Amino acid sequence: MADCIQASLLLPAALVLDCFFSEPPVRWHPVVYMGRLASFLEEISYKKASLSSLPQNTALFLSGSLAALFHILAWALPVYFIAACLSALHLMVGFLFAAICLWLCMAPRSLADHARAVLRPLSKKDLPKARTMLSRIVGRNTKTLDAHGIARACVESIAENCTDSTLATIFWGSAGYLLAGFPGAAALAVAQRAANTLDAMWGHKSPQYLYFGKTAARLDDCFNYLPARLSLVCISLAALIVPCTSARQALKAGIQYHAAHESPNSAWSEAAFAGALSLRLGGPASYPGLDVDHPWLGDGTPSATEKHICLAIQLMWASVWTGTLLLSLCLFIAA
Q1: Beta bridge partners of residue 293, listed in sequence order
Q2: How far apart are CA 9 and CA 96, in angstroms?
Q3: Which DSSP string corresponds to 111-171?
Q4: Is 284 helix (H, G, I), strand (E, B) or coil?
Q5: pTM
Q6: How far apart, in whole angstroms, are the C-alpha atoms of residue 182 and residue 172?
Q7: What is the CA radius of gyration of the chain?
Q8: CA atoms of 287 and 115, how far apart (whole Å)
Q9: How many whole angstroms separate alpha carbon 138 and alpha carbon 218?
Q10: Contact 209, 203 (CB under 8 A)
Q11: Minimal CA–CA distance to 136: which of 161, 171, 103, 172?
Q12: Cα distance between residue 311 and residue 158, in whole Å
């Protein structure tokens, strides 16, 4: 029974840590060091690819693939062995270490804080400041966005990162626990976060990363495949308790538009948010050096407002807690 209780408390403990402490300072944050290692590996890999006798695109693909795999294992394996050693000392120590690892890999409070940083100047009609704040959470060009475009992009970021930054972490933490206890939970959560970091840095369709970052992008797709589908359930259930949102429309839009996006995962949560908030998300977007004609998701209005950002933040938190409770129940039953 003690094992069941500890297992079921792992995810809530990590989420409570995030609620109280948010993320550590930038200079101490593990994700910052993930990014530094990725930059170092990128520099070395490009040098090796330039010296290869293989065709340049093939050399870039192979070097990028090896770098991506090395990067993920370089973080996941040490975390696994540390967690295993701590768990051998005392199971509660292993529990605390795993909970801290999950906390450091998830970011719901940070996501909410960044969204509010966009909301504040937007509500004061300070569009230049709102665009600047938005540029910190999206990769698109924000300079030409009007107030509706800023609000819509902010909601899209909340919806996408609800899966990438939190639900995926708790999902893989749960899967890792079922496979190998607290060491497995810590290691797979860190592996997912490392893959997500690589995708953010290398997973672009620009000439520089089209081949080099292909494996990184596919690995991130694999890590998010099941969590993205879980997100539809969590968002739809969460909409039952968030005022001014529709659970029925969230589920309907998620089912109808889940395959509309070019990404195999992005549309699941974005479409569900669009349905829940009666919005139309997606559409054409401009990125540095690239214009992308994203499909529209949802049947509502594209004219998002500050109110929709507020509701999206509430829906994100409710979805995260719903996923946490559902997966914790699964761990309690399976432990």
Answers
A1: 284
A2: 10
A3: HHHHHHHHHHHHHTT-HHHHHHHHTTT--S--TT--HHHHHHHHHHHHHHHIIIIIIHHHH
A4: strand
A5: 0.94
A6: 12
A7: 20
A8: 20
A9: 20
A10: yes
A11: 161
A12: 11
Show the beta-strand stretches assigned E in the chain: 281-287, 290-297
Residue 269 near residue 162, CB atoms below 8 Å? yes
For residue 284, the cross-strand partners are 293
> What is the spatial distance between Cα 79 and Cα 131, in angstroms, rounded to a whole number?
38
- C-alpha dihedral over 323, 328, 329, 334, to 10 degrees? 130
Whether pLDDT at 119 is above 90: yes
Quote the CA–CA distance of 95 and 258 in Å, as a whole number: 36
pLDDT at 286 exceeding the cut of 90: no
pLDDT in tens, 219-247: 999 999 999 999 999 999 999 999 999 99
For 39-66, what is each residue's pLDDT tens digit?
A: 999 999 999 888 888 899 999 999 999 9
Return all residues near 299 (Cβ < 8 A) that are at least 6 apart. 253, 275, 280
The encoded tokens of residue 140 equal 């698109």
